[in-house]
Specification:
Layout (H helix, E strand, L loop, with lengths): L1 H15 L1 H14 L4 H8 L2 H7 L7 E3 L2 H13 L6 E4 L16 E3 L1
Parallel strand pairs: 1-2, 2-3
Length: 107
């Protein structure tokens, strides 16, 4: 449910207030992205992500920065043993996209 709410807010912001997106983008770029609240929210998704992965998976490809951070943390913790690749879909490389523990970043 939280993901749906974030998606809706994100869409509305892009359509109705693109200046707000630019402000958030710029401020998180300078700060390196994330923060304690974001880390807590992402940590809460770890077990669910692990359960969603089939047992015979060979690699994971992410196209979303939050998912990349979760997957990278799982790799760093040793709870995910297959390679993780992030495919960058934004117009520039933002620090949120570059997650420790991700094996390959494709731009």
């Amino acid at each position: 449910r939280l993901g749906q709410a974030v998606q809706e807010i994100y869409h509305r912001m892009l359509v109705r207030a693109p200046w707000a997106y630019q402000r958030i983008y710029s401020s998180t770029e300078r700060a390196g992205g994330g923060g304690r609240v974001a880390q807590t929210l992402l940590r809460s998704a770890e077990e669910r992500v692990l359960r969603a992965l089939p047992p015979d998976i060979g690699a994971v490809v992410s196209t979303y920065p939050g998912a990349s951070r979760v997957l990278g943390d799982l790799r760093l913790d040793g709870r995910l043993t297959v390679p993780v690749l992030t495919y960058l879909t934004d117009f520039s490389v933002h620090p949120l996209w570059v997650a420790d523990g991700v094996d390959v970043h494709l731009a």
